[in-house]
Amino acid sequence: MGISPTQSIDRRAGAWYLCLAMLFAASIDVIAKLLTEDFSTAQIVFLRSLFAIPFAYAICFQQKTTNQLASPLWGWQLYRGLLTVGVQFGFFFGLAYLDLVTALMLAYISPVLIVLAANVILKERIAIKRWIGVSIAFSGVLVMLNPSEFEVQPAMIAILCSMVCWALLSISNRQLSDRIDPSVLGFYTTPISILVAGMLVYGEWLNPGAVEWTLYILMALFGALTQYFAALAYKYSQAGAIAPLEYSNLIWAAIASWLIWSELPDLFVWLGGGLIIIGGLISLRTEDIKRQTGYR
Fold first, then answer.
1. Judging by beta carbons within 10 Å of its beta carbon (0-12, 13-18, 19+), is residue 4 exposed, middle or buried?
2. Domain for residue 95, yes or no?
3. Which domain range does residue 59 map to?
4. 193 lies in some domain
């Protein structure tokens, strides 16, 4: 069955929103990498989440959804909050011990996990061409990792676990898309992180300087925007259709690595990146399969 003009527009909108979310996410990664040189994972998560609250509220105010904050489906938000804790702690911990490009390459497993979760949890039927696209993109990740030199480290395991949490968080955006506005979903990802990180950072606090405070504030702003645009993306598009576009994060990470740390991607990165982009485009252009009866 073909796609109606409205469905096509919505799918493209979801793709653009996710690419925008990944730009902000890459900015967070760069700032976090800079901060991990001096600050603990718990303090980074705590201040990032604390400063995110006013920005997230401002988004709700702009979207006129502040009245929905009083009834956000508390069970769901607790679940999403714990997933956010897993995402942040796992990734920031790994980022402290790995270079930015390696950390992000590992993180690119998340679109594959999202596609699988969409099939199992959301009952989204995945077209063969979309599976091919995701497989090509994932093969690009393997090429980047250069398995002949690949050595598993605790930091790598932490990032992989954080991506499992991210995949489930992304799927929950889709599950709640018709019940809660994306701005409200974004707001409630931060309070649990503040509580958990606040308990862990007690007694190990390091006072930031003016530059560090600015970085923390920017990271919080970008975090709120990432959550909002990611939630908006999965509201407009099937999770399996746009998940590979999370790989677009690579472009911004490579540029930042070159400008800040003078790290130039090698042949494996360029070859893998090409496969990732091709796989993402194949998946995006694959026609959506009609949802099964009863899916909401």
1. exposed
2. yes
3. 5-116+151-237
4. yes
Between CA 28 and CA 34 the distance in angstroms is: 10
Quick check: is 131 in a domain? no
In b/e form, how buried is each residue of 273-286, taking b as 16+ CB within 10 angstroms?
Answer: bebbbbbbebbbeb
pLDDT for position 52: 83
Measured CA to CA in angstroms, residue 279 lies from 15, 20, 195, 283, 284 at distances of: 14, 19, 39, 6, 9
How many structural domains does the chain have?
1
Strand segments (E) across the chain: none
The two three-digit tokens of residue 162, written as one number: 């954080």
In a domain, 279, yes or no: no
**Mean pLDDT for back-to-back runs of 10 residues, the chain (296 residues):** 47 82 88 89 90 86 85 84 93 87 77 78 76 80 68 79 90 82 84 91 88 90 82 75 73 82 72 75 56 36
3-state secondary structure of 124: coil
Question: What is the rounded CA–CA span in Å between residue 286 and residue 258?
Answer: 34
* Tokens describing residue 192: 């649990």
Q: How far does the chain reach from its first CA to its final CA, in angstroms?
A: 19
